Amino acid sequence: MHSREIFNIVKARRESLNVTQETLAQLSGVALRTLKQFESGKGNPTLQTLQKLGDALGLEVTVVIKNKGINA
Known about the structure:
The chain is mainly alpha-helical. The chain has four helices and no strands.
């Protein structure tokens, strides 16, 4: 999944719950500036930030690492 898809999911979920960016920032412990950048498609959130937002929005954050057959 690409970053833009993640941004869209978080924003859509927040809007479907009628939660403002300010409220989500408070509930998740993520800075409002960070959240605004994230929703506008800028920045590169850490897994910890994604987890905080997911927890506040009732979303599950899962990481999958696949071997693409590249030898290091």
